[in-house]
């Protein structure tokens, strides 16, 4: 199973410009998480910090007991082998065919024979649906295929943590849907910890087990999908609905006077081009392709959500309960339309996001 990534008080700046500060969260092992945020909020910087490509000024990134911010270069090199990274453009070598691109990490970082390399590369290319394209050059294939080739390369060292930097960037909705399904299928097969940075609302609503959002140089929220999809936090609600009205502006956050004027304009009956209604609620999550194993991550996440459901607003409780199957409602002892009876946290099992759940 994938490993947990624990981030404590992380702060990153470039010169006098603070990108984000005091970011604290725990990315659960073996689950798919998504980090959202408007353009320029440092989501890609966050990914690069997690893998040690950028060094934060303060805080910790702890993986298997090692703090990546303060460890030696040798230890960092070893920890990086646990990561697979899918960059925005696939980051393929244009002069190499797809087989050699995918094989590159194996040839660089292992002493495997060419027979072993070939077996592993073909296995990973089959996982991402690229069998038969081994001899093609990156310039001869579509953007979606380049993304899948980049993902195959990220998988060849059997990573426990997979980072995806805007995997939907430049893809049409159909290819994005295929890639989303592929990430869920991969998690079902290898149970890796996956973190995706994206602007795509559909991906954010249907793919992850956990959602987070960066805004105003801070982590606004991070937690199970059910918590954020039912949240009335203004910036989260605005982003997930793709609305113009809210704290997020074109270039920076809005002041209170601007927000009040926008609300008055809307209340007067003037359209702003946004959806007519807010879409809040727990929409169905993408399931693995038939024939693949069930995702253990789903069970683990739902157990966590039901342990804190009594701390959430009433509407959120109802939305979460309504999203459960009859069998799950029976398992957790709840009925649709009925609030859950508060129960204390199991001793020693409350995490930071559970302790803060009352503030979410």
UniProtKB/TrEMBL annotation:
Gene Ontology MF, one: ATP binding
Region of interest (Disordered), residue spans: 265-295, 332-360
Compositional bias (Basic and acidic residues): 349-360
Pfam family, one: ABC_tran
Keywords of this entry: ATP-binding, Nucleotide-binding, Transport
Ranges of residues in domain ABC transporter: 5-241
InterPro entries on file: AAA+_ATPase, ABC_transporter-like_ATP-bd, ABC_transporter-like_CS, P-loop_NTPase
Parts forming coiled coils: none
Protein name: ABC transporter ATP-binding protein
Species for this entry: Umezawaea endophytica
Source species taxonomy: Bacteria, Bacillati, Actinomycetota, Actinomycetes, Pseudonocardiales
